[in-house]
Amino acid sequence: MLEKKLETALNQHVNAELWSAYLYLSMSCDMDNKGYVGMATWFAAQAKEEFEHAKRFMHFIGEMDGKVALMPIEEVRQEWNSPKDAFEDTLMHEKIVTSKINKLMDMAVELKDYATQNMLKWFIDEQVEEEATARNIVNELQKFDNIPAALYALDKRLGKS
Ligand code: FEO
Question: How much distance in Å is there from the Cα of 152 to the middle of ligand 1?
């Protein structure tokens, strides 16, 4: 059984994951508009993953006899100055998501809710991976952003990953 305060926080996080999906979908559209087809594919795949994250939280709330409450998804940014800008925004966003998950873990620990702590462990590992992936791409773009051939190669590579 979930404590009400934790149920509310988990539902807010469902919203945050759905917002992430919406953000990456928007980045995908913008990259597509700018001619970076590989990056558009990469961001579309991220959006799908975020949707799966939201579903994972929803499933857990249901399993714990809680009630899923879907809330409105706020508007997202629609344009980025460059791929570097979009990936820097991605890294910044993933850091925010990590801190949200850490706060959920703090609450689960405080409430001695072991099942929620266990579920959140998967997300803690996932965030390490997501931040590392975004950071590696940002590092590459910071070095090669102004070299069209390097940008072209990165776009091709991300389209296949
Ligand atoms: Fe679901 Fe990228 O955090």
Answer: 26
